[in-house]
Amino acid sequence: MNHATKVADYCLATVVSPKSIEAMLEADSGGLFKDQNLWRVAAPFFQKARTRGESMPLLFAVRDDETCWFSHWAMIREIEVLELPDSRGESRCYFDRLIAFNPIWSEIDSLCHKPSDEQLSRERSEGARTLRWPLQENQLHPYTICETPAFIQAAVTSPAPQPEA
Q1: So what's the pLDDT on residue 116?
Q2: Residue 151: phi, psi to the nearest 5?
Q3: Helices assigned H by DSSP within 33-133
Q4: What's the pLDDT tens digit per position in 3-36?
Q5: Is 37 helix (H, G, I), strand (E, B) or coil?
Q6: Cβ contacts of residue 100 below 8 Å, gap of 6+?
Q7: Which residues contact 28 (CB under 8 A, 6 or more apart)?
Q8: In order of start, what are the domains of the chain with their CATH numbers?
Q9: Are 15 and 68 in contact (CB under 8 A)?
């Protein structure tokens, strides 16, 4: 994979059932994730990254009866928040084709929440080390904002391998 765009330092993660991820994989193309929760923060967060020329991944965790793990990821194409007058609505996240998660990063607590903007500013300007809080599976619904895994950054920004002569 070789994209001309930078990957955002932070991304979105959500949780789905095994049946849902199987259906998305069967499509073998881009997809649509719908949620009855309104992604009022995620939508502008994604738009800000897009304005900076960055692409943003959506990480899919799968929860079965016993465990929860990161399974696949995809680049987000668009997020729509459809609100009805009675406070109900739907969020729609359009994404590219799913890619399997690197097994080293499949544990939920292998990633951390995005620190606050103030903490990040202190890290940049004062050299203060920002605390990183590992994700927990009960924090993935409806979605969370977390660090983008390094393997995604590397996969997107590394040049495509040259064919051998």
Answers
A1: 87
A2: -65, -25
A3: 42-51, 117-126
A4: 447 999 999 999 999 999 999 998 878 899 999 9
A5: coil
A6: 71, 72
A7: 97
A8: 6-153 (2.30.130)
A9: yes
Q: What is the pLDDT of residues 107-137, one digit of tens each?
A: 999 999 998 888 888 888 888 877 789 999 9
> Is the bond preceding residue 57 a cis peptide, omega within 30 degrees?
no
Within 10 angstroms of residue 73's Cβ, the number of other Cβ atoms is 24
What percent of the chain has a predicted confidence (pLDDT) above 90?
70
Residue pair 46/14 in contact by the 8 Å Cβ criterion = no
State both tokens at 141: 């619904």
Which amino acid, 36? Q
* Tokens representing residue 154 in the block: 């590397």
What ranges in the chain are assigned the alpha helix state H? 18-27, 42-51, 117-126, 150-157
Six-digit token string for 22: 């199987």
Residue 47 has pLDDT above 90, yes or no: yes
Q: How far is CA 51 from the centre of its chain?
A: 17
HSE-CB at 53 with a 13 A cutoff on CA atoms is 4
Instruction: Give residues with Cβ within 8 angstroms of 63, minimum separation 6.
Output: 15, 16, 17, 137, 140
3-state SS, residue 30: coil
Alpha-carbon span 151 to 104, nearest angstrom: 9
